[in-house]
Design a protein that fits this description.
Layout (H helix, E strand, L loop, with lengths): L1 H4 L1 E3 H4 E6 L2 H5 L18 H4 L4 E3 L1 E2 L2 E7 L5 E6 L2 E2 L11 H6 L10 H14 L5 E8 L28 E4 L9 E8 L6 H8 L1 H6 L13 E12 L2 E17 L3 E11 L8 H14 L4 E6 L4 H17 L12 H10 L4 H14 L6 H18 L1 H4 L4 H23 L4
Parallel strand pairs: 2-5, 13-14
Antiparallel strand pairs: 1-3, 4-7, 5-6, 8-9, 8-10, 10-11, 11-12, 12-13
Helix pairs in contact: 9-10, 10-12, 12-13, 12-15, 13-15
Length: 417
Amino acid sequence: MQDEEWSNDGLSCLKLALVRSKDDAAALSDDDKVRIAPFSPAFVYPIFGQEETIFGYRDLEIHFRFASGSLKQYLSVTSAAKFPETGDVKADDPEQTLYGFIPPDYAKQLPAFAATVEQDAVEFVPCGTRIGAYRLKSDAPVNGKGKGKGKGKAAATSALPERPWEVVVEGEGEDDEVLYEAYGATWDTPGFKEYHRRMQVFVLLFIEGATYIEEDDPRWEFLTLFERRRRGDKVSYHFVGFTSFYSFFCWPDTKRLRLSQFVILPPYQSQGHGSALYNLAYQSILSRPEISELTVEDPSETFEDMRDKADLHTLLSASALDSLSAPIPRSLTEPIRKKYKLADRQFYRLVEMILLLDLDSTDKAKSTAFRLTVKKRLYAWNREMLAQIEPDERKVKLQETFQSVLEDYTRIVQNFL
C-alpha cells in the first residue's frame, strides 16, 4: 500500500503543450484554443518503462512544453512530496530519465522559455522545401480573404465523400488567415537535424513500439506539416505533425519508399489533417519518376483505415478502374497499379473494394466471381500457413477470413455508396 501511495501514472502526470506567443494565443478563436491546451501522450513506456509508472512522489506533475513552431523545449517537474531515500529504495528521477531522450538545451525557467517563444513567433520558418498546401474547408476564405465557413469544391462525383480539406495550388492561398503547408527535408537540409532531435520524442509518445532512427543513414526523407497563420502582415508557423520515409533500391533503376512514421499531434487530430498530409505525400511521390512504389511499415488500424479511404478516393476520382469486373486479369490491372505506385497487396485490396461497390448482391454469378477473386488473393497471401492444415479445415479458415475481409470492406466503403 505504501508503494502505491508513492506511485504515479506516467500517462497522467506527463502534460504536453504547444506554446504560442502571447499575441498569437490571444488571436485564437474559442474553437481554436484547443491548439494551445495541454494534452497527454498515448505511451510513455519507451521512456519510463513497461509499467508506465514513476515512483517516489505525491501529486507528481511533469510539464513538457514546446515552442509551437521551433519545438524548443521547457521541462519542469513538481510534486507535493518526495519519497525519503531508505537504503536502496529511492525516488525515480523523471527529469534525468527524460534527459536521455531530448536535446540537453531545454529551458528550465519559464521566463527564458517565454522569451524563446516570443522570438520564434517572429523568426521561425520551417526547414526544407514546401511540397504542397491545403486549407480546411471550415477555414476557406470568403471573397478571397479572411476565415469563413465555405463548403469548398464539390466532390467530383456523388460516389465520393466530401473531404474536410482542399488542396491549395502553388501561388494561391497567400492571403488565407490559416493555411497548412508540408515541407520536404532530408538530413542534408540546413537546420533539419537539430529540428528532428526536438521533434523525434513524439514518435515515442504517440507510435506504439517506435524507436529513434539513425542520423547517419542518408536514405531517410521527411515531410513536416505546419499550420501557417497570418495576422495582418505577420506570419507564424506552428507544428502539426510529420511523416518519415525510408528508401530501398528497386530493380532496375528506381527506388521504393516505405512510409515508416506518421504522427499528427492530438490538438490537430480528428480534423482531416492525417488524410491531407498523406495525400500531399502521395501526390509528391506520384510526381517523382525515380520512385516506383510506396509501401507502409506496420501500420496501425487507424492509419490503415485512413490510408484505405484516401487511396480509394484517389482511384475512384481518377476513374482508374471503371467498368472493372471479376475475375480480374492482371494484364489489365498491373499497368494501373504501377502508374499509381501502390504495393501489390494494397492495390488489390482496393480493387476488391471497388468491385464490392459495384456488386449487385442479387446477381449470383457476379457474387460468386467476387468471392472467388478475394479468396484467390487471400490464399496466395497466406499460402504457407494454409498449406499446413487439412483441406476441409483450409476451406473453413478461408471462408472465415473472407467473411472478415468482407465485413471490413463494407465498413470502409460505406461512405462511398
